[in-house]
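Posting this for the archive.
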Amino acid sequence: MTARRINVRGIIYKDGKMLCQQLTPGADGKVRDYWCTPGGGLDAGESLHQGLTREIVEEIGISPKIGKLLFIQQFEGGSRNQEQLEFFFHIENASDYHDIDLSSTTHGMAEIQDVEFIDPKNHNVLPSFLTKIDIAAYINSNLPVLIDNELN
């Protein structure tokens, strides 16, 4: 059976823009030419909300107010080319994320090259479904959770 990695991500959205980060180059020195939402993998025994809070505080230094589940993505990838399962939650306190000081975080300076609110439709954002959907509609309505399954 293939190992599965569970990831959690925050959708911090305000005025048509989403808080995204560009990661630092990988261990191989390869530049990452995409933007992504803050988050990462769960630690053993950690709940989805605990993991998301830890990841956002480690990377950005601001505690999230976690709202509803918006999206789930399932795909094969990562450094070990294993199955990935990602849960994307709305972060309700978007206004708290306008002044980010990566130097005051435990992981930000080492992992993040840039972080800012961007229009996902005008940037290379991963996962790519975030560039094609109406994110505000998912936040502000009772649309069902969007499930993006890229497994064969």
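Residues 17 and 119 are 5 Å apart (CA to CA). The chain has a mean pLDDT of 93.
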